[in-house]
Each structure stands twice: as C-alpha cells, then as structure tokens.
C-alpha cells in the first residue's frame, strides 16, 4: 500500500513523499507529485535511510532510565508513568532549589512540521518559566538577519522564478546535496541560453556543470561582493533610477565598497583578475539576474557581511521588480503562519532570560551562573553531533548534578548522556502540517503507520508532561487538529476556504502568490523595512553589532589548514548518522599539493587536530578542494572516529559571526598527520 507523506528534515525543499507500507512497516520511501516543486524527486539519503531510521536497531520504542555512567549506553526500560514521574521530580528539584530558570529546553530543528517543530513544547516551557533559547545562531539565524536587514520580513523570490533569469549566481549553496530541486531550475536556465555561476570553496558537483566556477577562499565572500559593487560603479552600469526609487543607504554602501578591488580579490579570495572581470562583465550585461544563497557563507566571521554584500548586488543593478530578477531567499516567509498563537507566546514570563544556543556549553560549565542550569531537556536536536567545541559540550552534559531528559526517535550520542529517555514518534506516525523555508508549497500529512512500540508524538509527550506538572490551562488540552488550525491563518484566501487541519494530503497549496500574482520584490512584494526600501545600511545592525555596513573581519589562522564541514550526501545534518553507511571513519578531502608535501596518500587514515581535540578520518586526495583547505562532511557521530570525537570537536565556540553571534564552523584551523 502506498500512502502520501512529507519529508520533515531540516532542508529547504520539504519534499512530498510516497511511502510503501506492508504489515505496519515502511518498506520504501519515494517521491510523489503532490508538491509540484519537488515533483516526485527526492534525495538518495531519504530514499535509502528512512526505513532503517524508523524500524532499525537504534529505534527507541520504550522509555528508558539510565543505570550506568553518563554516555555508557546502559539503560533499563521503564513505563511511561514512571518516566513522567522522574521528569517531574528532576525538574521540580531544580525549580525548588534555584527557580524555574534553572530548567533549560535544549532543542533545535529536528522535524520541521509545524506541530512537532514547536507547539505544545513551547507552551510547556513558557508556562514553567524556564530559561528561553535563541536557536537561530546555530544555523540560519545569521542568514535570516542578513536578509531581513535589506528586505525586512518580506518573502524573497520563489526558486521556480529563477528559471526566467539569464544569469544565476549560486553562492555558497551545494545544490545537489542541500537544495536538490533547484537543479531542475538551473538546467532550464542553461537550456534557454542563460549562465550559471558557482561561488564556493569546494568544487561541488554543480561546479562541473556551470559556466563559471569561482573557488573562493572560505570566509572571503564579502571581499568579492564589495569589490564587484565598486567595479560595477566604476563602469557606470549601476541602475541609478532603481536605486533612487527603491534603495536606501547606497551612498554609504558604495563608499565602503570602494575600499575593495581586484587586488583584494586576488589576495584574500584567491581568485584571478580574469575571473573577477568575467563575472563583472556578466553581471553588467544580465537582463535578469537571480542570486541563490546557501547557509555556507554565514558560517564565517564575516558571514553576515558576506550575505548582505552578495544580496546588495541585485539592488545596485536594479535586479528586482520582474520575474527572474531577485534573491532566492526566504520564500518561506510567504506562508500565513500564526506562530505566536501556536507557540502560546502569551504564556511567556516577562524578564525571563534568553540564552544563545551556541553558548549552552559555556553556560553549563559556568560555576558563577545565577541561577545555574540544573535540569535540561534535549529534544528535536542532537547537540553532541552538531554543536561547535564538542568536548566542552560533553563536559557540560557529563555533570552528575545536572538532570537531563531526552526525547528522540533513535538512540543518539546526545540521548546517551540523559538520565531519562523518552521514545518520540517519527513523522510517519502522526499528523502534521508543513510549511517550508526554501519553497512556497503548503502540505499536510496523516500518519502512515501506527506509533512504533510505545513512542509518542512530541505534542502528546508535552501534553502528558503538562498534566503531570498540573498545568490545567486550556492551551494544554488542544488536540493536534486544533494545533494545526492554530499554526496557519485559516482565513488566508490561498487556503481556498479549507481549514489547515483539513488540507488534502494528495496535493500541496501554493502560498507563492498574492492576490493571484506571483511574488516579485519591488512589484507585488514591497520591502518590509523601516524605510520601505531595500536598506544597504542597517541602523539596527549598527546599533546591535557595530555592523551597519558589511565589513571584512577574518579570523587569524594559527595552524596550516582551514577545515570546512558542509553537508553530507549520507546525512541531513546529523539525522541518519546511526546508519551503517555512516558508522565508519568519515573522509577528509585534501589537495594533492598538500598531500604530497606531507607525504600522505589517498585512502590512509589521518589525524586532524588542534588544541580542542583530534579526530581520525580517511584521507581523500582531490583537487576539488583548494590548497590549504580541507573538507569533511558534518553530522558524523562519535562512533565514526577512533578518538570518540568528530570534526565538531575542532570547531571553536568562542569565534562568532559578525551578526547574531552565530556559530562559525568554516574558519576552523587544524593540522594533519598520519594516524
């Protein structure tokens, strides 16, 4: 039997799925045509790994209590009542001794369903008065703030519109791994005679199929973008009519840009003058230019500036106001979400402290913190596999005076640190509604199998916790159907009069239109900034971060190699890290010049290290990377390395992006030797 579903993973595409079920077990996962954008195509990892994820040996099926040292994996099964009692006792001890802010929810972006991603859980912790978490800085927050500084919360170009461009800049976006369905759009551009430019530190697969590949040095995107702005001004090809009508702060911005030119691009970015001028030529001649930005740029010290400067090129060239011209970013802002209602924001207690999620390890180890964190709940997250400075986080989680409860679908490195583990249902086992952050099609799914074992959806886990804590407000009695209706504005005409909880599961609804017209910035969509124009100088960022204009603030290397850790073809972030394909040592790619200098050979094990730790990886010698730059995919689990650590142990947590104090993954400096 084939049943419709939706992929909830942290990916911009949010694919519609067709799931084959036999005897209440998932035997095959394929794409479906319900979502016209994803159009029956899905990535190999979802097709290959989901059945094992749901039914494999790592699946959690009963509540567990720790009976051995933290991280030992020694647990015993318990029933749900006992588990809820233990959670109540652990949280209550912390609250009685140190107040409710001694409890911390530690969650991020596991399932992207509106309900599973954040609904009853937020209400529970808001009602408790627990410390709140600013989650964006771990990933996406820098990019989101950079976009909003120019355009406000207005949606950017839906990806399908880029097919009408004759020049597409794919900047820091590994399309085939992290944004698969944009490939179809790019093929349409090239088939119509348009050009595709890839700007990336690694020669990704798309780079082999594009018209120009600029293998930029990590973290220098802002240099290239500012130099391009200055060069285009020198050539007198900026669209002054558009700037005068739609752009604020252009004079200040261009004054900043004039400090950068081809010499800086050659020195900092590692590009040639010929490459620079070719790109400037193409931008100057483009009829419609679309810019597609991934999350890679934000993971540098100048990440916010790089993103802002890349997006500013479209504004300076008048590349908005028509289909095919614009920035492919934030189309998910088009969804009629009513998040404050879904989360129960009215339950927040004024004055409650907020932690940056990247600071959690530091907070756990801070003996002067008042109140201290004494209880923690990890859910929708595998922080041990995803956070910078892995060893510091592990030290924090190993505190015996810290009560930790976890909820997940499978046993992860993070769940192994918990006192109590609650079995969460996979998204195939409950109903949910799905927006997206990289496209505009609204979808809903029903369960395709019953809950595996005693697992429960997040919503039910937190309903039961609310009951155990005596929270009897009406908000905690809302059904999943009611929550779906609270997740979206049911009065929005694009829902065609259908309640969100009743949306069909065999087709998606397009939110990418306003009054029947496509979303086009500076036409059907207006910049939602204080000035009502695209702001190249941000007063908000100047006040908060001293970064009103893009700036170049590189980290200072203290070791010979820069390590970058983008997305994997085997995992979506850390999801599927328990599959056998991810159990062995991960690869690290190195340029042949570096391998030859060090006397290292393809296929041998190497030790990559710095002062924070060391990880063993298998060397892949390839010219897909630049000399001096190493590439190793993110999301591995501790069992993949003989040291018990992953590349995240090497990544600094104290180095931050220029805005939002975002995590900096791609300016990690290491040395390499034979293992």
From TrEMBL:
Keywords: Iron, Iron-sulfur, Metal-binding
Pfam families: Molybdop_Fe4S4, Molybdopterin, Molydop_binding
All copies of domain 4Fe-4S Mo/W bis-MGD-type, residue ranges: 1-57
Record-stated family: Belongs to the prokaryotic molybdopterin-containing oxidoreductase family.
Protein name per Swiss-Prot or TrEMBL: Molybdopterin-dependent oxidoreductase
């Amino acid at each position: 039997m084939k049943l419709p579903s939706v992929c909830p993973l942290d990916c911009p595409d949010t694919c519609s799925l067709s799931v084959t079920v036999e005897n209440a077990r998932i035997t095959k996962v394929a794409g479906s045509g319900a979502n016209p954008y994803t159009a029956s195509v899905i990535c190999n990892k979802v097709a290959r790994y989901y059945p094992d994820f749901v039914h494999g040996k790592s699946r959690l099926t009963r509540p567990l209590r720790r009976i051995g040292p933290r991280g030992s994996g020694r647990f015993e099964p318990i029933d749900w009542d006992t588990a809820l009692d233990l959670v109540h006792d652990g949280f209550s001890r912390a609250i009685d001794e140190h107040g409710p802010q001694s409890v911390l929810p530690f969650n991020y972006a596991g399932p992207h369903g509106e309900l599973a991603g954040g609904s009853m859980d937020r209400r529970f912790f808001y009602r408790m008065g627990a410390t709140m978490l600013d989650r964006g800085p771990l990933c996406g927050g820098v990019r989101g703030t950079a976009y909003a500084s120019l355009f406000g919360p207005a949606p950017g170009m839906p990806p399908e519109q880029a097919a009408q461009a004759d020049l597409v800049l794919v900047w820091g976006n590994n399309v085939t791994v992290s944004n698969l369905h944009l490939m179809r759009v790019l093929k349409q551009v090239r088939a119509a005679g348009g050009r595709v430019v890839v700007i990336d530190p690694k020669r990704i697969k798309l780079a082999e199929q594009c018209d120009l590949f600029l293998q930029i040095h990590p973290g220098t995107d802002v240099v290239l973008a500012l130099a391009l702005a200055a060069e285009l001004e020198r050539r007198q090809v900026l669209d002054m009519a558009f700037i005068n009508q739609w752009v604020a702060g252009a004079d200040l911005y261009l004054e900043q840009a004039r400090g950068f030119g081809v010499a800086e691009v050659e020195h900092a970015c590692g590009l040639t003058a010929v490459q620079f001028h070719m790109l400037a030529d193409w931008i100057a001649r483009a009829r419609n230019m679309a810019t597609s930005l991934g999350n890679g740029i934000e993971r540098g010290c100048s990440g916010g500036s790089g993103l802002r400067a890349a997006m500013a090129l479209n504004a300076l060239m008048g590349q908005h106001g028509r289909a095919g011209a614009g920035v492919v970013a934030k189309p998910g802002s088009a969804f009629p979400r009513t998040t404050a209602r879904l989360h129960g924001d009215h339950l927040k207690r004024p004055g409650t402290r907020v932690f940056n999620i990247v600071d959690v390890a530091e907070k756990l180890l801070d003996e002067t913190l008042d109140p201290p964190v004494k209880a923690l709940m990890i859910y929708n997250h595998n922080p041990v596999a995803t956070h910078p400075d892995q060893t510091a986080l592990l030290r924090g989680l190993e505190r015996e005076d810290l009560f930790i409860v976890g909820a997940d679908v499978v046993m992860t490195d993070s769940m192994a640190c918990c006192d109590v583990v609650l079995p969460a249902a996979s998204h195939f086992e409950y109903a949910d509604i799905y927006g997206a952050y990289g496209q505009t099609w609204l979808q809903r799914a029903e369960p395709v199998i019953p809950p595996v074992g005693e697992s429960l959806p997040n919503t039910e886990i937190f309903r039961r916790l609310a009951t155990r804590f005596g929270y009897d407000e009406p908000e905690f009695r809302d059904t999943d159907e009611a929550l779906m209706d609270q997740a979206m504005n049911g009065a929005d005409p694009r829902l065609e009069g259908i309640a969100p909880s009743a949306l069909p599961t065999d087709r998606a609804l397009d939110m990418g239109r306003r009054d029947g017209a496509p979303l086009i910035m500076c036409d059907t969509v207006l910049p939602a900034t204080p000035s009502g124009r695209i702001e190249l100088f941000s007063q908000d960022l100047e006040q908060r971060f001293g970064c009103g204009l893009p700036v170049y603030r590189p980290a200072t290397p203290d070791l010979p190699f820069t390590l970058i850790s983008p997305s994997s073809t085997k995992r979506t972030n850390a999801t599927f890290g328990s599959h056998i394909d991810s159990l062995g040592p991960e690869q690290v790619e190195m340029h042949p010049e570096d391998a030859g200098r060090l006397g290292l050979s393809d296929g041998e094990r190497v030790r990559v290290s710095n002062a924070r730790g060391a990880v063993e990886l298998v060397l892949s010698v390839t010219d897909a990377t630049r000399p001096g730059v190493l590439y190793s995919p993110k999301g591995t689990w501790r069992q993949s390395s003989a040291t018990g650590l992953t590349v995240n142990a090497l990544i600094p947590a104290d180095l931050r992006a220029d805005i939002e104090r975002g995590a900096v993954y791609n300016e990690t400096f290491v040395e390499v030797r034979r293992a």
